Amino acid sequence: MTTATTASSFAQSDRAAIDVVQIDLAERSYPILIGQGESLWQEAHAHWPKGTSAVIVTNDTVAPLYAKALRQRLEGHYPKVIEVVLPDGEQYKNWETLNQIFDVLLGQAADRKAVLFALGGGVIGDMTGFAAACYMRGVPFVQVPTTLLAQVDSSVGGKTAINHPLGKNMIGAFYQPKLVVCDLDTLKTLPAAELSAGLGEVIKYGPIYDMAFFEWLEANVQALVAQDVEALRYAVRRSCEIKAAVVSADETESGLREILNFGHTFGHAIEAGKGYGAWLHGHAVAAGMVLASHLSTKLGYQQDAQFHARLVALLEQAGLPVQAPVLDATNNAQRYLDLMRVDKKSQGGAIRFVVLKPAGKAVTEKVDDAIVANLLNELITA
Amino acid sequence: MTTATTASSFAQSDRAAIDVVQIDLAERSYPILIGQGESLWQEAHAHWPKGTSAVIVTNDTVAPLYAKALRQRLEGHYPKVIEVVLPDGEQYKNWETLNQIFDVLLGQAADRKAVLFALGGGVIGDMTGFAAACYMRGVPFVQVPTTLLAQVDSSVGGKTAINHPLGKNMIGAFYQPKLVVCDLDTLKTLPAAELSAGLGEVIKYGPIYDMAFFEWLEANVQALVAQDVEALRYAVRRSCEIKAAVVSADETESGLREILNFGHTFGHAIEAGKGYGAWLHGHAVAAGMVLASHLSTKLGYQQDAQFHARLVALLEQAGLPVQAPVLDATNNAQRYLDLMRVDKKSQGGAIRFVVLKPAGKAVTEKVDDAIVANLLNELITA
After folding, report:
1. Which domains does chain A have, with CATH numbers?
2. Contact B119, B155 (CB under 8 A)
3. DSSP letters along B67-99, please?
4. Nearest CA to B259 among B115, B357, B122, B143?
5. How far apart are CA B235 and CA B213, in angstroms?
6. Are B104 and B55 in contact (CB under 8 A)?
7. Which of A9, B223, B347, B374 is paired with B20 by a 20 to 30 Å CA distance?
8. By the CB < 8 Å criterion, does B252 face chain A?
9. Closest approach of chain B CAs to the CA of A182, in angstroms?
């Protein structure tokens, strides 16, 4: 569905109901379950992959909150449940931390029938997925995203990776989970900054694909910020539906899928330039979307004078930054360009951007350095 | 074809001819080209994947011999050719060395249209393939194997990996090359130990799949040891044909493909137990095949009293060790069992072995620890 659902329509929905969004990739297809409470976990239980052991990979922030409950749910299903608790933070999304997962797996003699469970946000999901892709050349894994960002974006679609000092997500694999379980109850413990970071990715789906959803977001942003669970349920479901449609059409990012990176080329430069972890990914993407929207206007693709102001207003109401930072006091535009040139969308030296043509539909295009530099010089001031 | 070709029949073959063996994996299909001289490289040229740059990954032994020639062949086809020279040896098949490839790729701003070329033996092929699988979540790669072992086994079939201190090839991916180019001329520079290591994998294909090939090997082992290029050409082609048939039927080792690991469960224990690099892989596999053949007899599957002696004689004529080493002076059998339990074929604690049922056909089976321990105690003495 691409029509907007109003706040009043979801207010009457059955709280025990589970929303299911299917990712359709032939033999790699899998469901995303969205819900809360026992009804959700009973349904998840029916979908657990078979295996000789379950390995919960989580971090030291999430573990005290949810690891025990997940362990209890898995113990009835797997002969052995193992836990790996990693340090929390984007700065640990590297080979050394990944290797801690392998050390535990091999130390516990986990075999090819081990099933990994990623319990946490995007960093945990990306690292656990990549560990599952590589361990013994591939073991099954399940995403249990506990942040809004992970539920609406990173846990869905099979992109897994770690960072390299010279670039974000440079080492990774396309590797699909067997199942994604989005427990809306976990969003209740989310700090405001993490919630807004997730809303950045939610808002993204409007301009690239569905302006009716953008309008719904404008009408419901206060409910989302207030963590109204039914507003969040709809936002998660609609985001997953859009992501599912895009990923099912282009699993390995050879075309359409690139539109999901709206705001990300600028955003990745912000994250790398400030040092991973200094800016939350969703915040960097928000500031990046503002730049990408400006770029779309500059290229003549986005002529609705209202839209840009609406995007900025919505991001601000969601608690997101709309001003990209200075990365280099003496030559800021060049620094942005250098950082963006190692982006994975880059080909043969030219930097490719996702632009709106117009709002509601995104395309990917190479843009001359000079145009981008002018834009950066114009919009980013110390 | 599964019939034997005699030495006299290949003696008349056209030296300029190129043998092509096709790996049939739907959209991941690719050819193996086997030949020598300009005719081979002209054919290869027609198959190079498109790309913005070519990245030759090789080691400090192979680079002085063949890197310049390959660079010259690639320069006409790719705008940019980059070289990465790694230290030579199984002990460098680890994350630190793999990371050197990523450092160069990112340092040179190589993008998703970069094509990696693995120029070297099995270690280079496994690491380059894994780097290609992971870099930006996957870039194309070409295998240019320069050892017999790599030409007949490791370069074909898409198994890529690095070692972990707790186990060989534990971190990796199934990732197919776009092309394999086997230049028989490179075998002329191969040290005798490397040649025999390759013959270990060649000999393997007889007992697991094709006893007519085993007979051909018995008749031609002297020519192979003397590096007769036409004997080698047939051995490489027939080995690749058998591997192609097996891999095409089971890409990700969920069944049939496991038979290619005949001798490898014991062999991996020898490699790990002696420390990676102390025993060449092909030598460890040879000693492992002798144990696996004994195990087949002990289980009652291999009743031809002659076969075992023929296998040992053939391995010895090929210059291969047939006696497995002591790995632990006080409790050798237990040490072997412990090392074998982390093998990727292991499931739920039971160790699975490839056994002959009978010679010419292999199956995979769980075997009780007690039976294996008895065998090891019987056959391995200090």
Report:
1. 7-189 (3.40.50.1970), 202-226+262-379 (1.20.1090.10)
2. no
3. IHHHHHHHHTT-S-EEEEEEPPSGGG-SHHHHH
4. B357
5. 9
6. yes
7. B223
8. yes
9. 25
pLDDT tens for residues B294-309? 999 999 998 888 999 9
On whether the CB atoms of residues A163 and A130 are closer than 8 A, the answer is: no
Q: How many CB atoms lie within 10 A of CB B198?
A: 32
- Per-residue model confidence as pLDDT tens digits over A40-95: 999 999 999 999 999 999 999 999 999 999 999 999 899 999 999 999 998 899 99
**Is B14 part of the contact surface with chain A (CB cutoff 8 Å)?**
no
Give dist(CA A242, CA A233) in Å, integer.
14
Tokens in use for B115?
């094509």
Distances (CA, A) of B6 to A241, A354, B10, B215, B230: 62, 61, 7, 10, 11
Rounded Cα distance between B154 and B22, Å, is 16
Helix (H, G, I), strand (E, B) or coil at B338: helix
Neighbouring CB atoms inside 10 A of B27's CB total: 5
For B32-80, how does the pLDDT look when each residue is reduced to its tens digit (9 = 90+)? 999 999 999 999 999 999 999 999 999 999 999 999 999 999 998 999 9
Per residue in A100-114, pLDDT (tens digit) is 999 999 999 899 999
| Backbone dihedral region for residue B203 (phi beyond 0: left; psi -120 to 50: alpha; all else: beta) | alpha
Q: Is A161 on the interface with B (CB under 8 A)?
A: yes
Q: Do residues A282 and A349 lie in contact, with contact meaning Cβ atoms separated by under 8 Å?
A: no
Residues B100-159 have pLDDT tens digits of 999 999 999 899 999 999 999 999 999 999 999 999 999 999 999 999 999 999 999 999
Spatial separation of the C-alpha atoms in residues A115 and A93, rounded to whole Å? 21
How many Å apart are CA B108 and CA B154, to the nearest integer?
A: 28
B48 backbone φψ class: left, alpha, beta (φ>0; ψ -120 to 50): beta
Report H helices in chain A. 7-11, 37-45, 68-75, 95-107, 122-134, 148-149, 192-209, 211-225, 229-249, 264-274, 281-298, 305-317, 332-341, 369-379
CB burial of B60-96 (b: ≥16 within 10 Å; e: otherwise) equals ebbbeebbeebbebbeeebebbbbbbbebebebbbbe
Contact A106 B253 (CB under 8 A): no
Residue A146 tokens, joined: 């506990």
- Strands A141-145 and A114-120 turn out to be parallel
Residue B5: pLDDT over 60 = no
Query: Is B381 in a helix, a strand, or coil?
Result: coil
Which chain A residues are closer than 8 Å to B95 by Cβ? 95, 99
CA A262, CA A360: separation in Å to the nearest integer? 12
Contact A344 B99 (CB under 8 A): no
ipTM: 0.89
Nearest CA to B356 among B310, B289, B309?
B289
Q: What is the pLDDT of residue B348?
A: 60
Residue B21's nearest CA partner among B189, B229, B247, B226 is B247
Mean pLDDT of all residues in chain B? Answer: 93
Q: Is B304 left (phi over 0), alpha (psi -120 to 50) or beta?
A: beta
pLDDT of res. B129: 98
Sheet with B53-59: strands ordered across: B19-23, B30-35, B179-183, B141-145, B114-120, B53-59, B81-86
Contact residues for B215 (Cβ-Cβ < 8 A; gap 6+)? B4, B206
- Which runs of consecutive H residues, i.e. helices, occur in chain B? 7-11, 37-47, 68-75, 95-107, 122-134, 148-149, 192-209, 211-225, 229-249, 264-274, 281-298, 305-317, 332-341, 369-379
Active-site residue numbers of B? Answer: 137, 159, 201, 243, 253, 257, 261, 264, 268, 281
SS3 of A85, please? Answer: strand
